[in-house]
Amino acid sequence: MNAALLGIAAAALLALGLGFVARRGRQMGLEQWTVAGRSFGAPLVFLLMAGEIYTTFTFLGGSGLAYGRGGPVYYILCYATLAYVMSYFLLPPIWQYGKENGLYSQPDFFVSKYDSPMLGVVVSLVGIVALIPYLVLQFKGLGIIVEAAGYGAIRSTAAVWIGAAVATACVMVSGVRGSAWTAVAKDTMILLVVVFLGIYFPLHYYGGLAPMFAAIEQVKPGFTVLPERGESAWWFSFTVLLTALGFYMWRTPSVRSIRRATPESSAKTPWCCHSIN
Amino acid sequence: MPMVRWLALLPFLGMLVGPFFVNRVAPYILGMPFLPAWFVAWILITAAIVAVIFRYDPANREERE
């Protein structure tokens, strides 16, 4: 039993505990389960919207891309920013429509808006099919991280099963509230780790950010900018545009939009909509 | 469309068109090469722009009444 294992176990238990506590004092009707009675406040919705982009990709894909390819990795910073700008125009009307029509899910929206139950079925199927590779990737990443962080004490496969069981239990018991509160724990931890490492590594190994970038420039000139060919400015521009447009394509043109319920407070609340993946 | 909403085009210009002109390492800003510093600056500017749009968009005012 090493310290890393204790940390991993504590994180898993915290997630499980929060997931179960989240439903306390609520009658779990369908509206509570899917959209939390449309009553999440602005800070929680902010945390969820900001936090849903922090996944295993943050630790594996993002850092791997930065290490392997250099400059092109900046596309991550840009596409998310632009997608959030679009959400200002996209999400409030969807939220409004969903609230007026008492909708719960993304397929509901298409059924109601286009008056076509078939379209709802198609959207559901596409959503599920799109979700499978996404989940496989996320769980695969989770397994790799746990196995590496626990020095091999927990096999990747076991980690995947435990992770899937915890996630399923939280969602079944508490619905979107379970996702929300485990997300709060996840986002806080990821943010702490990322900020700590981002400051600590350059300081510890190079004595600061500037010396680190200077050292990179010396070994690999031009590595921190876009190359002339291949992943060039043209590649960058179109990739950012494409991924920004795709940001809400499958996960959020959804009416699981959540916002304060009372009219007085909603005027002061920023546009807030969210879907759990 | 309310005029103030057109401000939302600026982040797209900064991030999609900007890289063609600022794809360079020097000068370093706050320890960062120029290109990443440019993006970080635009992330902050974008937040400010959205705040301004939210504040002055008539759509949000109507709802208050």
Question: Could you walk me through the main structural features you see in this protein, from its secondary elements to its overall organization?
Answer:
The complex is a heterodimer of chains A (277) and B (65). Chain A is mainly α and 277 residues long. Chain A has helices at residues 3-21, 30-35, 42-51, 56-59, 61-69, 75-100, 106-113, 117-149, 156-206, 209-219, 233-246, 263-268. Helix content of chain A is 71%, strand content 0%. Chain A contains twelve helices and no strands. Chain A is globular. The model of chain A is unreliable at 251-277 (pLDDT under 50). In chain A, helix 3 (42-51) packs across helix 9, helix 6 runs parallel beside helix 11 and helix 7 (106-113) runs antiparallel to helix 8. Chain A has one domain (35-268). Chain B has one domain. Chain B has helices at 9-17, 19-22, 34-56, 58-64. Helices cover 66% and strands 0% of the residues of chain B. In chain B, 26% of the residues are buried. The mean pLDDT of chain B is 86.
